[in-house]
Amino acid sequence: VKPMTPRCTVPKAVPVGKTASLHCHENEGYPKSTYSWYRNSEPLSPDTKSNAKFQNSSYTVNPTTGTLVFHAVHKGDTGRYSCIATNDAGFAKCEEQEMEV
User: Fold this and answer.
1) Domain 7-99 sits in which CATH superfamily?
2) End-to-end CA distance of the chain
3) I need a surface site. Which of 25, 34, 36, 95 has the fewest CB within 10 A?
4) Taking every annotated instance into account, which residue ranges of this chain make up the domain Ig-like (predicted)?
5) pTM of the entire structure?
6) Each residue's pLDDT tens digit, 49-72
7) In sequence order, which residues have a C-beta less than 8 Å from that of residue 76 and are 6 or more positions away?
8) Three-state secondary-structure class, residue 40
9) Mapping DSSP to helix (H, G, I), strand (E, B) and coil, where does residue 77 land?
């Protein structure tokens, strides 16, 4: 069963240095969906250490729960965030939401 459009929760504004949690979830997909996050239409690498572009970022992505957590946000984390739920039958994307730091 193709995933339905996931429900995404993105904080509107977060003070520099604070923790921010972004959530993405849908219930219809079978098998269960995995989740990937995008900032300004670019995929957020699940592995920040191996990707030079994300080395200054301090976030973790859980593809199973759809949670994206920034441990200490900085100005560079400002942007439009969206999430895609994917399974064998297809994928669905939530609307982009702005997060300001």
Assistant:
1) Immunoglobulins (2.60.40.10)
2) 37
3) 95
4) 6-101
5) 0.89
6) 666 665 566 789 999 999 999 999
7) 56, 57, 101
8) coil
9) helix
